[in-house]
Amino acid sequence: MTNLNLSSGFVYGATSKGNELSILSFEVANTIVKGSTLMHSLSRRSIRQLNDVVLPSEGVQLLVSTDMDELLSIVADDKRKELQIFTGEVVRFGNQCKDPQWHNLDRFFEKYRREPTPQKQLREEAELMMQQLITLVQYTAELYHELHTLDKIEQDYQHKRLEDGKSNASQKGNGLTILAAELKIQKKIVKNLKKKSLWSRCLDEVMDKLVDIALFLNREIDNIFGNPDPDSEKKQFLGSKPRLGPAGLDLHYANVILQIDSIVARSSSMPLNARDMLYQNLPPNIKFSLRSKIQSFHVKEQLTVTEIKAEMEKTLQWLVPVATITAKAHHGFGWVGEWANAGSESNRKSIVSADVIQIETLHHADKQKSEAYILELVLWLNYLVAQSKATSNGGRLRSLLKSPDCSTLDSVDRVDISI
Q1: What is the dihedral of CA 251, 254, 259, 262, to 10 degrees?
Q2: Which end of the chain is more exposed for a tag (fewer CB within 10 A), N or C?
Q3: CA 321 to CA 298: how far, in whole Å?
Q4: What does residue 366 show for φ and ψ, rounded to 5 degrees?
């Protein structure tokens, strides 16, 4: 149990009673999932995967950096930001507690970061506490789903009552009786889940575990990555490079890459509007570069559709997974209600432990490098679409790059080199 008897003014006291989470339980559940995801990413297995598989991968090496120390510094910063979000939410919940010991935890966490004190708590203890909380979260997610079901049944019941009230006695069926029985059963299900979930737990009781977990995560990040050095030359150099995530472009670029991959896979049957949509979605820099590059793009010898795809696959085979993970990170299960609707219990458990390492996405990707790879793919895609058309027209390949209709890129999507 956390001891807050510090000079910062915190005094440990008895847990207040009657401070049940109730509706706040869904927000607390989301915070717990964030903490669980961060803890999982710091496990020995995850760190080994990071060092042996993730950082040496083509996507990271070609788009972010080849310097392993720099990459580890990036990951460490990401983990500290995740911890900051987690502790920020813990602070907010603490301020809602009746017991004043949990108030103003931001000062307590800041003091701990400046003057870390030895802790006897082991990883096993922190993991046990987290597992206890995750069990409560699983029931809370089910409760969220069942509450929505209860609301629907209640609406159906009230609607049926109004209908029967306007009908003659002879026209009334047993529909209301059936709905009343369903409503009674559903209320029992909800009542049972409230007892098993965070809903009926005392906020102060949960806070005790959340604070211990926050302290463990802070210490674990320092143990794994070392103490932060904000003045390092690597960080200053990294900060000077335009990156897709900070510019809010990572999801946009990921979608463009996935669009290209989709067109390549169906080059002979892809509808024209799919290529038009890709052209419209191209980032301005790539559109601008395409105007000049498309005139100078030459292939030494005419290639077949299969050969062109094989050439493009050299880039797509490592770039598409990065784009896919980026999309997954943006459309992930951040809200316990979505998590509850994810399906079976086994699926929901996997979602809790599944985490996307930001370094695997396009977030930290160098903007200039990313645009160069996408531009190259678009140029090859022009050639692929044209070759597919030529093949379907009896094998006659017209010179695309000399088309008189291609004076501007705006006309590209209306002639044979349509994207």
Answers
A1: -130
A2: N
A3: 28
A4: -65, 125
Give me 312's structure tokens: 């493009």
State residue 173's pLDDT score.
65
Instruction: Quote the pLDDT of residue 292.
Output: 86
Contact 243, 363 (CB under 8 A): yes
366 with 60: CB under 8 angstroms? no
213-246 as b/e: b if 16+ CB within 10 A:
bbbbbbbbbeeebeeeeeeeebbeebeeeebbbe
Alpha-carbon 132 to chain mean position: 24
Question: Positive or negative, the Cα torsion across 208, 214, 217, 218?
Answer: negative
Quickly tell me which residue has 């598989």 as its tokens.
53
The predicted pLDDT at position 203 comes to 94
Report residue 300 as tokens.
Answer: 């030494």
Distances in Å between the alpha carbon of 166 and those of 16, 162, 163, 171, 214?
51, 7, 5, 10, 59
Residue 318 pLDDT more than 70? yes
CA–CA separation, 192 vs 177, rounded Å?
Answer: 23
**pTM value surpassing 0.85:** no
Mean pLDDT for all residues in the chain: 83
Q: Residue 124: exposed, middle, or buried by beta-carbon count in 10 A (0-12, 13-18, 19+)?
A: exposed
Interval 93-103: pLDDT, tens: 999 998 999 99
Tokens of 222: 């320092």
